[in-house]
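Q: Is it fine to ask for two folds in a single conversation?
A: Yes, each is treated on its own. Send the first.
Q: Here.
A: Result:
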Amino acid sequence: MVYLRRKILFFGNVINQLQQSIRWSSSLRTKDKNSVPQRFFKYADLSVRLAGPNQLNPKPDVNKLSFGKYFTDHMLKVHYYEGMNSWQAPEIMPFENIVLHPAAKVLHYAVELFEGMKAYRGVDGKIRLFRPELNMERMNNSAIRAGLPSFRGEELIKCICRLISIDQEWVPHSTASSLYIRPTLIGIDPTLGVATSDSALLYVILSPVGSYFKATDQQVGISLLADPRYTRAWPGGCGNAKLGSNYGPTIQVQQEAIEKGLQQVLWLYGENKELTEIGTMNIFVVYINNNGERELLTPPLNGLILPGVVRNSLLAISRQWNQYKVTERSITMKEIIQLNSDNRLLEIFGAGTACVVSPVSYIDFQGQELHIPTTEQPEAIYQMLKKRLLDIQYGIIPNHPWSLIIE
C-alpha cells in the first residue's frame, strides 16, 4: 500500500507540473504586449499550498541524523521565463519530484548552481539564519558565471524564512544539529546548444542534519590526501563560484582518498603546490611566524577558492579579537613540510557551513606522512573559533548582528 501510494503521489506530481507548463506556455502566447515585465520575483507575491495529511513524513530521530538523507514536507519553487515577465510568482508547495524536458540544459551542460545554508534552533527556542545575505550575494555571483538569471537576495531570504516557518518542527531541538537549506538554480531551457538558458527554475529544499563528520573524527582530527596530480580550480576558472560542475569531478579523487583510509582531499594548485581547499571547506593554518607569534593564515580570494561565509566570519572574529596575527596569502606544501619539521606548525583546519570547523591531524603527500598537532594544542585557535561561531548560531550570544531570527 505504501508503494502504491508513493506511485500515485509521483504521477500526480508529474501531471500537476505538466499542467503548470501548459498554463505557462498558454500565458506566454496570450501575454499582453503592453504589460510591464517583472524582472525580479517578490515575497509579496508568494503563494502557499500546504501538504495534506497523507503527504507528511515522520520526523527522524535527531540522534541518528546523517547528512542530506531526510527532507522536510515542503519546498519553494520560482520559475523564470525570458520574455514572459521574467520571474514568476514564488510558490511554497508539498515536497515533490521535478519534471524536466530531456533536453534541459542542466542535464547536458551542468547549467546549475546551489548554496548551502543552515537554520539553527537556539537555546532560547528561536530559529536563526546565519548571515544569509552573504549566501545570496554569492548565489547571484554564481548565476552570472553560469548564464542564469539574478534575483533580489532579500526577497529570496523572506521566502526561505516563510518556508522554514511552515516546516519549523523539522528544525532539530538540539545544539548539535541543524536544518540544512539548499537553494538551487538550474537551467531548464529545452534546447540543445551551449548558450544562456532562457528558462530556469529556482527551488529550495530543507534537510535536518547532524554532524558532517563523526564525533570521533572531530576529536582526533581528519586525515587528508594531498595529490598534486589533481586540481580542483585554476586561474580564470570558476573555483570561486558554487557550481555543481566544481564538485562532480572531485568524487573520483575523494574515493581514492577513502580507499587509502583517509577522509578528505587537500586540493593543491600549480608547480608550487599551493594549498587551496580541503574537500568542500576553506583551509586555515596556524603557525609560529618568524617573530615568534602565532599567526592564522588562509589563502586569499584569488579566484581559486570559494568565498566561504564561515571563512569570512572566522577572519572577522579573529581580527576583532586581535589575539594573534591574521594573514591572507598563499601557502605551499613545501612551507607546510618545513614548518612541521621545525615544530612551528600548530594547527590546520577546514571551515564551511556543512562541516563547521574541522581539525586536521594527518596529511598523506607523495609518500610523506605528515602528522599535524592540531588537536594537541592547549589553547587551540580552531576550538575558540568554533565555540564563538556556534555560540552566535545557537543564540548563546543573543541579538548578534549576524543572526536573523525567523518570527
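Q: Second one now.
A: Result:
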Amino acid sequence: MTYDILATDLTLLAPELLLAVGAMTLLMVGVFIRKDETAAKWVSLLTIGLLVAAGAAALFLVPVAGGTAFRGAFVFDPFALFSKVAICGAAALALFLAGPYLKAERLARFEFSVLVALAVLGMAMMVSANDLISLYMGVELQSLALYVLAAFNRDSLRASEAGLKYFVLGALSSGLLLYGASLVYGFSGSTGFNEIAIAVGDDPSVGLVFGLVFLICGLAFKVSAAPFHMWTPDVYEGAPTPVTAFFATAPKMAAMILLARLLYEPFGNAVDSWQQVIWIIAALSMAVGAFGALTQNNIKRLMAYSSIGNMGYALVAVAAASETGLWALLAFMILYMVGVIGAFGVILAMRTPEGMVEEVDDLSGLSQTRPGLAWSMTGIMFSIGGLPFLVGFFGKLFIFYAAVQAGLIWLVVIAALASVVAAAYYLRIVRVIWFNEPTQKFVTAPTPVGLVANLSGLATVLLVPVAAIVFLWARGASIGLI
C-alpha cells in the first residue's frame, strides 16, 4: 500500500521531478562540454525542451491521477495545472529570447538556463502549495535563483546593484512571510491549509488575522504590488533584459496564483478580514503604476511601473473573492503575459551597431526603419493598455465584470481612472514610433527576437476570436477552489 501511495505521489509530482532531475543533469552536461558558447547553446535548447516536457506532463500526465501528494503538502487541481502550463510556456519563451542577447553581450554561460529551470521548479511548487512549509520552500527556491539571475552580468555595476537590492529586499519579504506563517501556526496549531481553514472558522482570532496580514505583505513583494514595489524599477532597469522579460512574466503568475490560493482556501471564511487589505493594495498599485510611469524615459523602468499597475488590476480580481474573480484572474494573467513577452522582444531588438539602447526616444521613427516591429509594438502597447478590442481589453473586462458582480464599484472606478492615466504613456510610445523622425538605426533583429516580437504583436489582434477559449479554460481551472 505504501508503494502505491508513493507511486501516486511521484506521478503527481512529474513536472517538478522532471525539472529537478533535468536541471541537475543539464548542470553536468554544461560542465563537461567545457566551451562556454557551445555549452550555453545546447543547455539552453535542452532546457526549453525540458520546460515543454514539464508543461506537457502537467497538462496530460498529472490530471490522470489528481489529488494531493505527501500527506496534503501539495495539491494538484486544475487551478495549479493551468498555472504550471502557463509558467512553463512563459519561461520557455523568455529563454528563447535570451540566446542572441547573451551571445552578443558575451554572457553566454550555461548556468543561465539551469537557473531558469530551478526558478520554474520553485514556481511549480508555489502554485501547488497546500501547506505553509511547502509554500515557503517554493518561494525561496524561486527567489534564490532569481537573485542570481538579476546579477548575472557580473561586469555590470547596474546588474550587481539590481541583484543586491533584490536580495536585500527579498530577504525582508521572506522575514515577513516567515513571521506571518509562525503566527498562523501558533494560533491554528497546524501548517496545512485544510487544518488552518478549520481553525479560522467563521470568526478568525486576532492572531490569525495578524499572521495573514504578514503573509499578504510578503507575497505582495513577490508580485511587486504597492507599497512593496520599491525594488521593481531598479531591478527591471539593472538586470539583463532577458532576465527582466522573465521577471515580468512567470514569477508574477506564480506569486499571484499562490496569493489567490492562500486567501481563497485556508482563509476563505475570513473574507471580511482580508478583502479591504487587498482592496487598498490594488488601488495603490494601480495609482503608482499609472502616475509613476509618466515621467520615465528608460523603457525598462516604464515597463516596471506598467507591471506594478497591472498587478493592481490582477488584485482587483482577487479582491472580488468569488469564482468569477478567480477565472478572471487566470484569463487576465495569460493575456497580460502575451503582451509583455512581445514588448520585451521589441526591447531586445533595440540594438545599434554600438550596442543596446533602452530609452523611449530611441524608438523614434521605428515605423520608417523597422515597420514590422513598429506595428508589433503598437499592437502590444494598445493591448497592455486595454484598448478595445485587443486581447488585453478582454482581460480587464473580465476583471471589471468580477469586481462589479462582487459589489466593488469604487474599486472599478479607480481601476478605470488608472487605465485612462496609464494610456498616456502607452500612447507616448506609439507617438514616438510613428510621428518622430528616426534617431537610431537598429541592426537586424536575431530570428528568435523578431519572431517572438512579431508573433506577439499579431496575437494581440488574432487571439481575439479565440479569447473565448482562454475564458473557458480559465473558468474550468477555477471550478472547485472556493
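Q: Anything structural to flag on that second result?
A: Two points. The chain has a mean pLDDT of 87. The chain has two domains: 1-266, 284-482.
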